[in-house]
Specification:
The structure is a homodimer. By secondary structure, chain A is an alpha/beta fold. Chain A has helices spanning 3-17, 44-48, 67-78, 100-111, 126-139, and strands at residues 32-37, 55-60, 84-90, 148-154, 161-163. A five-stranded mixed sheet of chain A has the order 2-1-3-4-5. The termini of chain A are far apart.
Chain lengths: 165, 165
């Protein structure tokens, strides 16, 4: 079954009928950029009380500050004026359930593709990981220096955001 | 002013007080993974009628299928069982407002850092771009072959989702 065909097409029609956000500007209203995990249990806007238009939301497996997340942050800051960054990891993350080496071996076995050059960024301690991600942002020469960077853990069991750094 | 300090800490406390999602499982309920732009005007869950827990949401500048987006999709499929992919670009995207070469020159001038090796993935035609992103997913040997991949444009002026591929 295609969830897109069965539900999303219909849901979006209803959304568009009631749409009242045509006047939002391109630059985020709160000058905020967020790097968070792709996890389905975290709806970033809702958990943080953000409205559509408030923030750039960058998400990937783990909420990792990869080169691609840095690319997005650079564009966010230089072209669209954001001036505060939040990095959000969370409890019970899928990234805690495997090791890069295991996944590389499994992919090689299942697809025949050599994955020895790939990093999947699995980690074992969300607090330590979130500190390391904030450090990557602060260490980048392409990120503005006068910008606050917060590192947080979202608790999927309670909905609570915990400040780490 | 820190938007995090002024608003988010308080908003999240209220969110956590009413929290009723502690039973959601780690794998996305709708077996869906979405790659979308980070744009502040697109609240993916709301525009698509998705609930917290339904889908992995991967976002970056442009909604580009970078190596990092592929990393996230591989983890989403192999470890967390998703079986349908949506790629969402949108009208009036910031990626239409610059060229990679301009941004590289500007960063070199403003920071002194050599950016000649960096791709920012600016593009000029969202429909063409979304087709190219879907192709990158379909061409990857590490992505499952029996999975539907849809390419869409979100219209920020109307809230409407347009099917491209």
């Amino acid at each position: 079954m295609s969830h897109y065909r069965e539900h999303i097409v219909h849901a979006n029609k209803q959304y568009a009928e009631k749409f009242d956000r045509s006047r939002l500007a391109m630059p985020p209203d709160k000058k905020l950029a967020i790097v968070a995990c792709m996890d389905a249990r975290l709806t970033v806007e809702e958990a943080l009380g953000l409205k559509t238009g408030d923030a750039h939301i960058i998400r990937n497996a783990g909420g990792v500050v990869t080169d691609d997340a840095l690319r997005s942050l650079i564009i966010s800051q230089r072209l669209l004026g954001t001036r505060e960054i939040l990095v959000i990891n969370h409890t019970d993350c899928g990234m805690l359930t495997f090791k890069d080496e295991e996944l590389r071996k499994r992919l090689k076995k299942e697809t025949g593709t050599d994955c020895s050059h790939l990093s999947f960024h699995a980690f074992s301690d969300p607090e330590e990981n979130v500190r390391a991600q904030v450090k990557k942002i602060k260490d980048s020469s392409l990120i503005l220096k006068d910008v606050a960077v917060h590192g947080l853990i979202y608790h999927v069991e309670s909905g609570r955001l915990q400040e780490v750094v």
